[in-house]
């Protein structure tokens, strides 16, 4: 009788242990730069560099893990992941309250931060210079386009009234702020007849997590003039694998989308 095979979808390992009483309330990863940004309940934004840590045990432990119990003789054990740790590089105090959400605007080299009372700020990754986002007071969720396209795009959901929201799509300004002092320019806004709990970019669309389900919003592309002139060339079709963290009560936040090429027809 063949032993039952099991599969673990995710393997977790601690990469950061705080030595103070502060709590991490938001996390964002800048994969290209090898940086992790942490938002704390004190309103502080921390930048950490990802470094490799020496794995305990060495080659003997790795060899025993490949032949450990519970593995079918014909199934090879997955290669052990290299241990990682975070090293603090910089920090900036942003809000009086906790940092509720973070989003990396790749094309503008900025990180967007939302406080637990609905403030939104843009912080440059080089100098940590701060700039506000116009019309974002009372924000409930933020999401940045992860594709790295230029201009970088940021979506901000704002509570308009009880049970209603509006979602603004912004072009994020790289470097210093605009002449008005803002770090982004709003180019599109859509009313939503629900409270937006979370958001995530999936391709050119934005998935909104709302009480009881999801909604899909597709803003016009950046630089769209709205005039019926020459139709732009259709981009190559892509599939998007979406990671969803589900809540057993209502809706639940969408953590992100990963682009992958369509299979050959």
From TrEMBL:
Bilayer-crossing residues are none
Q: InterPro entries attached here?
A: Vam6/VPS39/TRAP1
| GO terms (BP aspect) | autophagy; endosomal vesicle fusion
Q: Where is the composition biased (Low complexity)?
A: 56-66, 228-238
Gene Ontology cellular-component terms for this entry are:
cytoplasm; membrane
Q: Region Disordered: list its residue ranges.
A: 56-76, 219-238
What's this protein's name?
Uncharacterized protein
Q: Which organism is the protein's source?
A: Monoraphidium neglectum
